[in-house]
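Reviewers asked in the last cycle whether our approach scales beyond single polypeptides. To address this, we selected a multi-component target totalling 257 residues and predicted its structure end to end. The input consisted of the following lines:
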Amino acid sequence: MSNDSILKTFLVTFSLCVVCSVLVCMAALVRIDREAYNQLLETRTTVLAAGGYDDQLAKGASADELFANFEMKVINLDTGEIATEIDPAEFNPKTVMDNPDTVVAIPAAFDIASIKQRPKFVRVFIDNSKEQIVVPVSGPGMWGTMAAYIGVKNDGTTVNGLKFYQHSETPGLGSEIERPKFQNQWIGKKLYGNSGNLAIKVVKNGRFDPNGADAVHTIDGLAGATVTGDKVQAMVQYWFSDHGYGKFLAKYTKSKE
Ligand SMILES: Cc1cc2nc3c(=O)[nH]c(=O)nc-3n(C[C@H](O)[C@H](O)[C@H](O)COP(=O)(O)O)c2cc1C
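The resulting structure, written as structure tokens, was:
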């Protein structure tokens, strides 16, 4: 076939188009894969930080390897049971919140954090190596949604760590919730009092008394950001109330006794 033939020009152009399209599609697929992996890695790193693995991460340990200590489960907050019918690897919190059948309105009497509605199903992270469970919490801050993971020991009350991964609080004020100075205070604190009452609280900055009878339940608030501190307290108190993880934790801690 002559190089000047129209058919040859068409065939060469067509082949070039096909090759380029395949390359573009492959590049797009690699990118989607990488974005999905980066998202997964971010979740894993946050869960690990909340579970007290900060030091190992800082020393360069692989998040993926440390995460092998964890077992993911989806729980039904209404029953407190593990939802074995849902595959944790396929679980998508957004899909749950977008489906009216899997969203629960929070009755005003329970809605101490003004969250309004919560998912029926939540994915939690069970860490058999540190005998703890890491759970997500979220709620309104002063300016937007705050979201974090909290690690709680198998006794169901001792906090192993808290790690915020989302908020819209003001830099230098409420945003200090993401700093180690605030987050590290949570380590070792007890969520509940001796009679099972929710006792964890965030007090106004400077009012924390390390020798006080309630020191084990108390977090020192942020300077000039009492509003954010109050919102964090309300958020954590809601999620560990009977309407949040209460039912599940009661069953879970009993199974670990
Ligand atoms: C522009 C602006 C942004 C603010 N952002 C926050 C914030 O993110 N978190 C917060 O608790 N307070 C914030 N405040 C301050 C609150 O209005 C309130 O004064 C403060 O929470 C009270 O804390 P204090 O009792 O420690 O002074 C902000 C105030 C202004 C004017």
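The longest strand covers residues 132-140. We regard this as preliminary and will revisit it once experimental data from Aim 1 are available.
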